[in-house]
Specification:
The chain has helices at residues 11-20, 34-41, 57-61, 81-86, 99-115, 117-125, 155-166, 181-187, 194-200, 220-225, 243-251, 291-309; strands spanning 2-5, 22-25, 46-49, 68-71, 90-92, 147-151, 170-174, 189-191, 203-206, 231-234, 257-260, 280-282. By secondary structure, it is of the alpha/beta class. The strands form 2 sheets. It has a 7-stranded parallel β-sheet, sandwiched between helices. Strands 2-1-3-4-5 form a 5-stranded parallel β-sheet. Helix 7 links the parallel strand 6 (147-151) and strand 7 (170-174). The chain starts with a strand and ends in a 10-residue tail after the last helix. The chain binds 2-keto-D-gluconic acid (8YV). The site of 2-keto-D-gluconic acid has 10 residues, from loops.
Length: 319
């Protein structure tokens, strides 16, 4: 079979794929240009893509032999799923294996913003740490007894709740479907209305998928309802948050701070207003970025691809 990849996978995975298939990997500028994507995919039976690729109707139409689209991600908002399904194309994705790594990153952003780690790093590097800090300088906020509000209680939200419990936090969550009593009990979490979660949380962490319903759902009105000291964490998708509204709220200290791994447009541009703000920690969309997790994602992608190209359901299939 012929496979087209819009970017590299770890070496072992490419080696394994090359033993089984004719493999064409895009090694140039990322994301791949539209022209290169269209010409790369035209003979392919299988496609491996990433969240920064747009797999729309035209791309799908240009690939007349395509049997499987496998994204190296848990998010699949970049694929026209309905259209691909109408063409009998299998769609694979990589949930589960990245849950712990992404929850770790969300929690590290929580710690970083509340304890001002990156902020103090910036102070030292700028040569501005000019006197020892005493009782009142550079104090952060402890997490114990603080309320974490988890927006979207899927796999990653639940993994974050486990971490919060160990740190003595109280966790509320809002989700379209309420968890069972048993799961709520074992995680030590309470179900909340969306407005209750927004107004009562000290930290709000976003774990909903990006859809037309969640597009821009975190906006000026949302920030107005948050506590003035509350912190927003986003490791899901940038477009769930209205970035302009967030920047204004942070600038005016209408909310306490933010930890952001994802942005409306990536990479975030040099000099973006967010980079000028002290109460923000920025990371470069690295939620799943550990060697172990990326290896697991690659293994799963290969399995998804082989099953999908054989006309079978991938291990994790988008329906
Ligand atoms: C990216 C992600 O796939 O899983 C997702 O939805 O956004 C990430 O895991 C990864 O950063 C490679 O681009």
């Amino acid at each position: 079979m012929k496979i087209f990849l819009t970017g590299k996978l770890p070496d072992f995975a490419l080696k394994e794929l090359r033993k089984m298939h004719i493999v064409n990997v895009h090694t140039g500028k990322i994301p791949i240009s539209r022209a290169k994507l269209l010409s790369g995919i035209c003979n392919a039976d299988g496609l491996v893509c990433f969240p920064f690729d747009s797999i729309d109707q035209d791309v799908i139409d240009s690939a007349i032999h395509l049997k499987a689209i496998c994204t190296f991600s848990v998010g699949f908002d970049h694929i026209d799923v309905k259209y691909a399904k109408s063409k009998n194309i299998q769609i694979g994705y990589t949930p589960d294996v990245l849950t712990e790594a992404t929850a770790d990153l969300a929690f590290s952003l929580i710690l970083d913003v509340t304890r001002r780690v990156t902020e103090s790093d910036r102070i030292i590097r700028a040569g501005k740490w000019t006197k020892p800090y005493g009782a009142v300088e550079f104090v952060g906020t402890g997490l114990q007894s603080k309320t974490l509000g988890i927006l979207g209680m899927g796999r990653i939200g639940q993994a974050l709740a486990k971490r919060a419990a160990v740190f003595g936090m109280k966790t509320s969550y809002y989700n379209r479907h309420r968890l069972s009593n048993n799961v709520e009990k074992s995680l030590g979490v309470k179900y909340s209305s969306l407005s209750g979660l927004i107004s009562k949380s000290d930290i709000i962490s976003v774990h909903v998928p990006y859809t037309k319903d969640t597009h821009g759902m975190i906006n000026a009105a949302f920030f107005k309802k948050m506590k003035k000291t509350a912190i927003l964490i986003n490791t899901a998708r940038g477009k769930i948050v209205n970035q302009r509204d967030l920047t204004i709220s942070l600038k005016r200290n209408q909310i306490g701070g933010a930890g952001l791994d994802v942005f409306e447009s990536e990479p975030l541009q040099k000099g973006d207003p967010l980079t000028k703000l002290n109460n923000v920690v920025l990371s470069a969309h690295i939620g799943s970025s550990t060697v172990q997790t990326r290896d697991e994602m690659a293994r799963l992608t290969i399995k998804n691809l082989n099953l999908g190209m054989a006309g079978k359901k991938p291990v994790h299939s988008v329906e």
